[in-house]
Amino acid sequence: MMLLELQRRMLGDLLEPLEGKQPPEARAGEYMTDSARLEAGERLAIYRRSYWARVRDAVAEDYPALRRVVGGPRFGELLDAYLQAHPSRSWTLRNLSRALPEWLAAHAQFAGRNWRAAVDVARLEWAYIESFDAASLAPLDAEAVARLGPESRLRLQPHLRLLALESSHIEERVLAAHREDLSAGPKPGAGAGQGRIGRGEIRRGRRYLAVHRVAGVVYYRSLDAGMFGVLRALQGGEMEEGGTLVEGVERFLQSNRQQGGVEARMESLRETLALAAQLGWLCMGESLS
Q1: Could you report the per-residue pLDDT of 91-108, keeping only the tens digit for each?
Q2: Would 78 be classed as within a structural domain?
Q3: 50 in a domain, yes or no?
Q4: Domain enclosing residue 84, as ranges
């Protein structure tokens, strides 16, 4: 057997789900030898269990609050189903759980009656990760903001994430879960539902959030519908070099006609730009280095 064929066969067997109907250990002897203490199938099983434990842990570490919403046993089933649909395709585990919020939105059976809240929590947790990791550009100072003209090219901070959620005030729960995991690490029994977030703790209601980073710490900021619309309009036209201010204003006015008259929308625009400048969200349109 050629080395490349051997590597491919072993990799394929390692990636077989642990609960598969035909365990690959039975055929491990075709390309592995027994050791002094273990048979070939037992040797493969060690690597296989270790692989699945690692990728499951990697996804679980990204979603500590989601685990508390759906409960430990159901969360384990969710992890297995997600990883079968989205196995690791990269040398890094950084983006392994990127697709989980979208996947969960299409698989309500893994979240039970808390499904909609679970999807919101997952979206918020992934935004937390992206905001923590994303680049940060030099923000515009007050003088630079005052000099902005219609053709000024703008972009928002790369670490800024904007979310429209259906569950109200879940950000405190998410932030607490992440801070607890960072400060204390995994706790015995956490996978079995310790610290679970119950249905009564989650309220339905439209919620607009900005997720951003300050001095290496991720924060959530509540926005009203007008501010959210302005920021989405500015963010929507960004490319590597940024979009012009007038393009962003036009997008906002066109896409938010239901939010009062022109004057009300222009006031929302002014308030949002002032807030964005104060928080360092506005940057000159330029390529990331």
Answers
A1: 899 999 999 999 999 999
A2: yes
A3: no
A4: 63-284
Give the whole-angstrom CA distance, residue 32 versus residue 40.
6
**How many domains is the chain partitioned into structurally?**
1
Q: Tokens for 37, please give them.
A: 């203490």
Contacting residues for 254 by C-beta, under 8 A, at least 6 apart: none
102-139 CB burial, b ≥16 within 10 A, e <16: ebbbebeebbeebbbbbbbbbbbbbbbbbbeeeeebeb
Could you tell me if 226 and 141 are in contact, meaning their C-beta atoms sit under 8 angstroms apart? no
Total-model pTM: 0.81
> pLDDT-based confidence at 169, cuts 50/70/90?
confident
Note whether 161 and 127 are within 8 A (CB): yes
- Let me know if residue 140 belongs to a domain: yes
Sheet holding 243-244, edge to edge: 243-244, 153-156, 282-284
One DSSP character per residue, 173-189 reads: HHHHHHHHHHHH---TT
| Domain-located, residue 272 | yes
